[in-house]
Amino acid sequence: MFIFGNLVLAVANVLDILLDVYKWVIIIAAIISWVSPDPYNPIVRFLYLVTEPVLRPIRRLIGGRLGPIDISPLIVILAIIFIQKFLISSLIELGYKIKGGAVI
Fold first, then answer.
1. Alpha carbon distance 102, 73 (integer Å)
2. Cα 48 to Cα 46: distance, rounded to the nearest angstrom
3. Which residues contact 32 (CB under 8 A, 6 or more apart)?
4. Are 62 and 71 in contact (CB under 8 A)?
5. Going along the chain, which residue ranges are E strands?
6. Annotated domain spans of the chain
7. Each residue of 52-93: pLDDT tens digit?
8. What was the pLDDT predicted at 57?
């Protein structure tokens, strides 16, 4: 069973890294949105392409703005932190329990 435990641990670690990277992508996109970026810049286009599918439904749901401030990136970042603290931590504990080792 230690192989399945290692698989669960590996999946949890990869998900944690991917969520960290996506959190930074959202932070960078939010900071860039404060200035008037060139919409034809490949980096700006990439950031828009990656973040808009997640931010758009939240903007529709909550209206998206608190005065002049767009709070949808903050909500997504808080959701990512919740997923990391709850789901990823649970997967790591499950992986160690399946392995039969002590939880670190």
1. 37
2. 5
3. 44, 47
4. yes
5. 65-66, 69-70
6. 2-99
7. 999 999 988 887 566 778 889 999 999 999 999 999 999 999
8. 92
